[in-house]
Design brief:
alpha+beta; NADH Oxidase; four-stranded antiparallel sheet; 18 helices; 10 strands; elongated
Length: about 375
């Protein structure tokens, strides 16, 4: 494939709103990838919680044709997701400060706007059409966390960054504040090999800041302790010993990215889809806890938060409300206003204890007991 064609594809990706793009042939992926042995070791340690689907994922590494018949190449893309307002407001410092406001809800930065799965997938499909006008028709599949791919491994081999100690992809131009997507193609394209050196050095800020000590070592995450797993992927009861460590994090966790030195280079998104919706950057826990099920589905229409459903949404908020006990139990020094807030919170929790489902009620009861305690 001529260099000018590769450059044209990268240019088209930029025009489609992607911040980075690179090509990797499936042949090179299989040749240079060291993932299988490392991944098997991870599976053996059973640190994936109840995400049992991960045990089946490796089989697709050997036969990507199961995902797209006769696949020969993969176009890997990145898309920045920080908004203009965040970049202007010293987003790392402000977000860390928000975690110290126990009455407020913390929603992971990536989830405050439109569902990135839809945004990237639609733009990948449009990009495929544009590429076909350059190289001719080809078969493809757009993948954004929707197929058993190892996106970070693909991105590393394609030269889009290196895997950080927090297991996320990092690069010197944008830190880690971007999404990954892949366009599997049945046409033969030449790889753009430019594997990046790891620049984490001796830094361990991401590991040390983790609220639940989920990192068992550099590049090793015990997902069953990770706040993102507990508030999104985990479908059941959150272990009692981990609840106090979750703080006011309702959906996901950004801590390891907020302290990463490379994220001072994070760039603003080129698309408007990730702008904050429904006041999710500054809502109180009680405001969100009092949403009806209808409110939840209407206000989160088009959001990735919908995937956890209303019961898990309430479960997470109940845990966060329980963790606001110290804030509300200081009413003696903060006047009648906070006392009224506390009564409203306890009333809402009591209703969920009495009428909540089997998932919500135990967490609401735990929160209520925390608020009733003077400790």
């Amino acid at each position: 494939m001529p260099q000018n064609v590769r450059n044209k594809i990268k240019s088209l990706a930029k025009e489609a709103g992607f911040s980075g793009a690179s090509i990797l042939s499936v042949k090179d992926f299989k040749k240079y990838n060291q993932l299988p042995s490392n991944y098997n070791k991870y599976l053996e340690k059973k640190m994936y919680g109840d995400m049992d689907y991960l045990t089946k994922k490796l089989s697709f590494f050997y036969t990507p044709e199961k995902i797209l018949p006769d696949v020969k190449s993969v176009l890997i893309v990145t898309m920045n997701y920080l908004t203009n307002s965040l970049i202007r407001e010293n987003w790392q410092e402000k977000s860390l400060a928000h975690l110290n406001k126990p009455e407020k809800s913390y929603i992971s930065l990536y989830a405050r706007g439109r569902d990135y799965h839809k945004v990237l997938k639609n733009r990948l499909k449009a990009l495929a059409k544009s590429i076909s006008e350059v190289i001719g028709d080809f078969g493809y599949r757009a993948c954004v966390d929707s197929a058993p791919l190892f996106e970070i491994e693909l991105a590393q081999l394609a030269g889009l960054g290196w895997r950080g100690k927090n297991t996320l992809l990092l690069n010197k131009e944008s830190g880690s504040m971007f999404f990954l997507g892949a366009l599997l193609m049945d046409c033969k394209l030449v790889s753009m090999p430019d594997k990046k050196k790891n620049h984490c050095g001796s830094c361990r800020a991401c590991m040390d800041v983790c609220p639940t000590d989920a990192f068992v070592g550099p590049y090793q995450l015990d997902a069953s302790r990770c706040v993102s797993y507990l508030t999104i992927e985990h479908k059941g009861i959150i272990p009692k010993d981990l609840r106090p460590l979750i703080g006011n994090r309702v959906y996901g966790c950004d801590d390891c990215q907020l302290v990463c030195p490379w994220n001072k280079f994070a760039k603003v998104s080129q698309v408007p889809d990730f702008d904050v919706r429904n006041g999710l950057s500054n809502s109180t826990l009680l405001e969100l806890f009092d949403w009806s099920e209808k409110d939840f589905y209407e206000k989160h229409r088009g959001s990735s938060i919908l995937r956890i459903g209303y019961p898990r949404w309430l479960r997470n908020l109940a845990v966060a409300l329980g963790n606001s006990s110290q804030y509300f139990n200081q009413v003696e020094n903060n006047g009648a206003g906070r006392a009224r807030e506390k009564r409203a919170v306890m009333l809402s929790l009591s209703k969920k204890v009495q009428k909540g489902c089997d998932l919500v009620a135990p967490h609401a009861l735990w929160a209520l007991q925390r608020l009733e305690s003077k400790d």
